[in-house]
Amino acid sequence: MAITRNEEDRLAAFIRSLDFADEIIIVDSFSTDNTKQIAASFPHVKFVERAFDNFSSQKNFAISLTSNDWIVFFDPDEEITDSLKDEILAVVEDPEANAYFVKRQLYFMGKRIEYSGFQTDWVVRLFHKAFAGYDGNLVHETIKTEGPTAKLKSRLPHHTYKSFDDYTAKLHQYSKLQARMLYEKGKKPGMVHFLWRPWYRFWHQYLIRLGILDGKEGFILAYINAFSVFKRYVNLWLLYRKLD
After folding, report:
1. Which parts of the chain are beta strand (E)?
2. What is the pTM of this model?
3. Which are the contacts of 92, defined by CB distance < 8 A and separation ≥ 6?
4. How many helices and strands, by DSSP H and E, does the chain display?
5. Treating both helix axes as pointing N-terminal to C-terminal, what angle do 215-241 and 191-203 enclose, rounded to 10 degrees?
6. For the chain, how big is the Rg over CA atoms in Å?
7. Could you give the domains of the chain?
8. In whole angstroms, how far apart are CA 180 and each of 7, 20, 84, 157?
9. How far apart are CA 236 and CA 180, in angstroms?
10. How far apart, in whole angstroms, are the C-alpha atoms of residue 148 and residue 114?
11. How does pLDDT run along the chain (244 residues), one tens digit per residue?
């Protein structure tokens, strides 16, 4: 299962990597590339189009379409390895928890990122739908679970980088949704948000979270993530001024 938007470059390989699943559901937010045509070339894929409102809503809608209890929910830029498939199948045969975390391994600009805050990137990718669901956050959504959880041993390669423009566009979308969340909570931006928060984000990621050890890629990651924090509060300020 996945949600998509303009994923023609990697969708076919992603669907093939889900060959162990009993059903494959793709919820697409009206892609403008060949995503729909590629999905249609796989007769066992259920492809549904739905206007995107936020990440939690889109993913919870996808879960509502499933007919099985155990769900794997991956992003198309995540690589489902053979060892991870085998581990998932073994776990589902004799589960000891209601949800399972997997540790992602980020690849950015062709480099494996060991630090920069991603050394603790654990995400739920296997869960029983009776005990789990996305938390309602518009972005950076997480699965809230009931009952015991566990961790899988296999790593999950995360190839989030297509191009620099694509990556920054993704962060721009995130910053707009984060601004909307703050706006709905009544948070108002001040100079501390424009100056301190981006500065802190850069140095926290680059030094405290050891991005400096990831070389120039670590510096670039820290810089563009700090800038996305700045854009978050600019977008929040624009919401209060009713401007685009």
Report:
1. 2-4, 24-28, 45-49, 70-72, 99-108, 111-112, 122-128, 132-134, 143-145, 149-158
2. 0.92
3. 70, 126
4. 7, 10
5. 160
6. 19
7. 2-158 (3.90.550.10), 164-241 (no CATH)
8. 25, 38, 36, 30
9. 7
10. 29
11. 999 999 999 999 999 999 999 999 999 999 999 999 999 999 999 999 999 999 999 999 999 999 999 999 999 999 999 999 999 999 999 999 999 999 999 999 999 999 999 999 999 999 999 999 999 899 989 999 999 999 999 999 999 998 999 999 999 999 999 999 999 999 999 999 999 999 999 999 999 999 999 999 999 999 999 999 999 999 999 999 987 6
Q: Cβ(134)–Cβ(144) under 8 Å?
A: yes
Instruction: In whole angstroms, give the CA distance from residue 115 to residue 106.
Output: 9
Spatial CA neighbour of 142 closest among 172, 122, 120, 171: 122
CA 126 → CA 29, 30, 41, distances in Å? 23, 26, 26
